[in-house]
């Protein structure tokens, strides 16, 4: 899928696959997550290290350059965990800026 324009659904699918692979590598199972839930605080066993690993995996899968951990948003106010939908939004924006 690298270097192509993906649909939002395809990107969400790649995100889900990458999260699931990271969790399975550490012996965890992935539970269902809603778009309005924060991945870092909702999925058991998914921590900041998994966030970085999945971010790197997504860079390869999507052929884009991402921030250090796409699961958090840093601003002048501080750092805040993103919801699943917000992570997808960040991935869509990253892919569009790479076109």
How would you sum up this structure, described in words?
It is a single chain. The chain is mostly helical and 99 residues long. The protein has one domain (8-97): Non-ribosomal Peptide Synthetase Peptidyl Carrier Protein, Chain A. Helices cover 52% and strands 6% of the residues. The chain contains four helices and two strands. It has helices at 8-25, 39-42, 48-62, 84-97, and strands at 72-74, 79-81. The longest helix has 18 residues, at 8-25. The chain is globular.
Supply database-style keywords.
99 residues; mainly alpha; Non-ribosomal Peptide Synthetase Peptidyl Carrier Protein, Chain A; two-stranded antiparallel ribbon; 2 strands; 6% strand; globular
């Amino acid at each position: 899928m690298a270097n192509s324009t993906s649909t939002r659904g395809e990107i969400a699918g790649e995100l889900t696959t990458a999260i699931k692979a990271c969790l399975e590598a550490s012996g965890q199972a992935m539970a269902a997550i809603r778009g309005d839930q924060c991945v870092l605080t909702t999925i058991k066993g998914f921590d900041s290290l998994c966030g970085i690993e999945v971010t790197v995996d997504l860079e390869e899968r999507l052929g884009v350059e991402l921030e250090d951990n796409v699961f958090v948003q840093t601003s002048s106010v501080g750092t805040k965990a993103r919801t699943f939908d917000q992570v997808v939004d960040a991935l869509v924006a990253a892919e569009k800026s790479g076109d």
